[in-house]
Amino acid sequence: MITHSVSPETSKPLVSAVNVHKSFGDLEVLKGIDLEVRAGETIVVLGPSGSGKSTFLRCINHLERIQQGAIRVGDVQVGYEVRNGRVYHAPPSTLARQRKGIGMVFQQFNLYPHLTALENITEAPIGVYKERRSDAEEYAYTLLERVGLRHKANAYPRQLSGGQQQRVAIARALAIKPKLILFDEPTSALDPELVGEVLAVMRDLTKEGMTMIVVTHEIGFAKEAADRVVFMDGGKIVEQGSPQDVLVNPKHQRTRAFLNRFI
Ligand SMILES: Nc1ncnc2c1ncn2[C@@H]1O[C@H](COP(=O)(O)OP(=O)(O)OP(=O)(O)O)[C@@H](O)[C@H]1O
Ligand SMILES: [Mg+2]
Predict the structure, then answer these.
(1) pTM of the predicted model as reported, rounded to 2 decimal places
(2) In 3D, which of 80, 69, 72 has the Cα closest to residue 28?
(3) pLDDT for the residue numbered 11
(4) CB of 59 closer than 6 A to ligand 1?
């Protein structure tokens, strides 16, 4: 168990989701999600396929629009702005600014194949956030160092292993200096022998106090790195608590049934 320098009782939540509902047509996928995440916390989200985990992550940075409820990251409702006391959909420039605080890492890495590792990392800082190339590159080298890939700066994704590509993707997420990183099954597409190197980078981020919401089936990672484990099923949070509570002594039959698959 990793300890953090946060005091959960006093700090205001960085992420607050209240009664979040999301449907795709007639299909209600999120049926009232309530979740608070404090700065510095690592939350692991578990649940069966189709339970709404990815959808929930996508709602947090407004890749999906919710139909009911509210999600706040820091002081903003991502995707909305208030003018003269009324709430409006945010224009793309405002949305880009709001998303600057939120990094996302996907299962399939999603690196640009025609850009080198370095260029993948500097693309958003230079292209979207208008940082100076020299500053963005200097920081990108620092990040590559941090994920152990300084020597691969000029490699293209096809020249990298899956684990290396995912570490570049994490460096890219860090390049915008986010206060929150959303991980959607970051190791599921990797060969088993490459999972460890990616989890090691994520563990370092946890220790450094990054706020992370991680959808993963890596129960070992959840046990040692999560401050809280959330179990979702059928578009709802069935239970949440410490790794010990949820993974070792789950209260709900659905959680127990799900965890039995991993034994
Ligand atoms: N863009 C979409 N349009 C229509 N239905 C969608 C869309 N995205 C997701 N769904 C549906 O919403 C439900 C939840 O999907 P979601 O991807 O959030 O589940 P998940 O918990 O991440 O599952 P998995 O573990 O397989 O990744 C599924 O029934 C899925 O088919
Ligand atoms: Mg998913």
Answers:
(1) 0.94
(2) 69
(3) 64
(4) no
